[in-house]
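Thread: quick sanity check before group meeting

JM: Hey all, I'm pulling together slides for Thursday and realized we never actually wrote out the predicted structure for the chain we discussed last week. Dropping the sequence here so it's in one place. If anyone has concerns about the input, flag it before I start.
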Amino acid sequence: MSDYKKTNDLTEKTTPVDADLLRLDDSADSFAWKKATIANVSTKVQADLIADDNTFTGTTTLDKIGLLKSKSHSPNGIVTFIMDDGNACCYTDYKPLFDAQGEVACPAIVTDWVGTTNFMTLAQLLELQTSGWEILSHTKTHPEFLSALTEAQIITELSESKAYFTANGLTVENMVYPSNDNDAVVRKITMDYYNSGRAAITQYFSPAYNTSPVDSYNMLSVEIVGVEAADIANYKTYIDNAYTNNGWMIFFTHFATAERLAAYDEIIDYIQAKNMEIVTVKQALEITGNYFEGGDGVAIGRDGIRANKIVMHALSADPTTPRQGKSVIWQSDGTGSGDDGDIMMKITAVAGGTFEGGGNTKTITLVDFSAS
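JM (edit): ok, ran it. Output follows.
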């Protein structure tokens, strides 16, 4: 196992927790998820985990697991540009264009190709990094489908690329999947080395922007290929949708032609006219990324929680009445509201109270266990 495995400080928790969604150690062998249930987290959410002033209003300190990271906010949406493979045109053609526009982008680098014919050199990558561009990983050898490899082979692709970057003074924190291919195993291993993994939309004209909570290890993107007027109009529609929905739009490309460079110039002009920020992947994650990242398991973002399962413990008493405009969901053991096994929800309406209290509260049964 490589020494270049991403680490974190999740072992320094301040609260005992007891189910299985928040990862609290960095064990490569077990990829262990120490017991930290969403039930535990949901009580913090009901207590306004991230309050309107970005302070935690509950009784438990969870900043050790990153839940209190304050995110900035971009009301108009944000855009990121990525150049896959590390082709020489990224330096010779795209850098002058982005420099003239006062913007930056992100080359995704295959480490075995650095310094070979038609690809950027290490010196050029270091210059880009110094200029504010973010270098991304695109694996060691660019296998067409990471999902077709064994776990050992995937680890080699990621760990050895990470080792190359680190040894050569490049700060690389985010990943682009070759051919945008990934599966649950690929995403799980990617978490050990990088903070995110970029994929792509599977069907054009589907929602293409990323929103909170971000699917950090399967991020959506659109390739800029066609450069006809209709193609550029489509790219602008993607930008409009991200603008309207305060989303994060990612575009990527591979090569440069005179027509494609002209298209990029027009697209950047359009983004700037809408007062949208063009940012790197790292900057985007700082703006709209998740407060807590658990990969496919669970993520907590500015606009909600994404989870592939929710584990709840039966409560012997109803939870505290939520504040105005808030709600809480729990499983009953039959002692308080609801019968044993029922899934309950307590809601405090906005009307009829103040922000600090009041409002009309109702308790409802979401799932009647005895009737199911």
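AS: nice. The chain has three domains: 1-70+291-311, 78-288, 312-372. Confidence is low (pLDDT under 50) at residues 1-71, 353-357.
JM: adding both to the slides.
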